[in-house]
Amino acid sequence: MKGSRFAVIGLGQFGSEIARILAKKGAEVMAIDNNETHIENIKDEVAYAVCLDAADKKALKSQEIEKFDAVVVAIGEDFETLLLCTVFLQELKAKRIIARGNGAQQRMILEKIGIKEILSPEQEVGRVVAEKLLNPNVVGLLQLPDDYEIAEIKAPKGVHNRTLTDIALRDKYKLNLVTIKRDYEVKSGNETKLTSHIIGVPSSETIIYDTDTIVVFGTIKDIQKFTEINQ
């Protein structure tokens, strides 16, 4: 989304791809690494390229890191540095922190210190990560040829409590609805838990609720337009 500001820390192949795609889509990107070669390789493609030690809290603070919409910590080879950086970002009140976790053990440690958004390079590709950053309503993507995709989207505010006929996804937005994932409350003993279920093929009179996730098919451009108009 144009006007968004992101910092990407760690400019290996994974981090560099995220930074480049975000910049190409119009976001203001600060790329950070402690390797001068990595900085030189990307400096002409992003708004700012800064060489600093991500495990240095004062250095991070000097970049006013808390003012960015999100910070991606994509450091891959030094988990201790990634952890220190992540903790410092929490202390500096970064708005949104997305950290790289290689394997189950690293994911567990990151979850223990309160990180909710964890990237696994073996499961995610840079382009998909960038799309999710630019549009927080998107929770999943399946990329297809010719700029088409199938996207899982948290129902944006503009479609809450409206029927599919009223929303007119196909006529107004050039999108096809695949299905809806809906949360239901299930009682288990004294606890009430949320569980998600798929609504097979919704009818034209199906109502979209605020807790629904809709699965749509269309071009990247049309899906982005739909979410922006209805946010």
Share of β-strand residues: 25-35%
Overall spatial form: globular
Task: Please give the largest β-sheet.
Answer: 6 strands, parallel
Helices, by number, come to 9
Structural class of the helix and strand makeup? alpha/beta
Question: Helicity, in percent?
Answer: 25-40%
Descriptive notes:
This protein is an alpha/beta fold and 231 residues long. The protein has 2 domains: 5-134, NAD(P)-binding Rossmann-like Domain (Rossmann fold); 138-230, Regulator of K+ conductance, C-terminal domain (Alpha-Beta Plaits, 2-Layer Sandwich). Helix content is 33%, strand content 31%. It is built from 9 helices and 13 strands. Strands 3-2-1-4-5-6 form a 6-stranded parallel sheet, with helices on both faces. Strands 7-8-13-10-11 form a 5-stranded antiparallel sheet. Strands 9-12 form a two-stranded antiparallel sheet. A hairpin with a 2-residue loop joins strand 10 and strand 11. Helix 1 packs across helix 6. The longest helix is centred in the middle third of the chain and has 13 residues, at 79-91.
Show the helix and strand layout.
Layout: E1 5-9, H1 13-24, E2 28-33, H2 36-42, E3 48-51, H3 57-62, E4 70-73, H4 79-91, E5 97-100, H5 103-112, E6 117-119, H6 126-134, E7 138-143, E8 148-154, E9 162-163, H7 164-167, H8 169-173, E10 176-188, E11 191-199, E12 207-208, E13 213-219, H9 220-230
Helix pairs in contact: 1-6
Summarize the structure.
This protein is α/β, with parallel strands linked by helices.
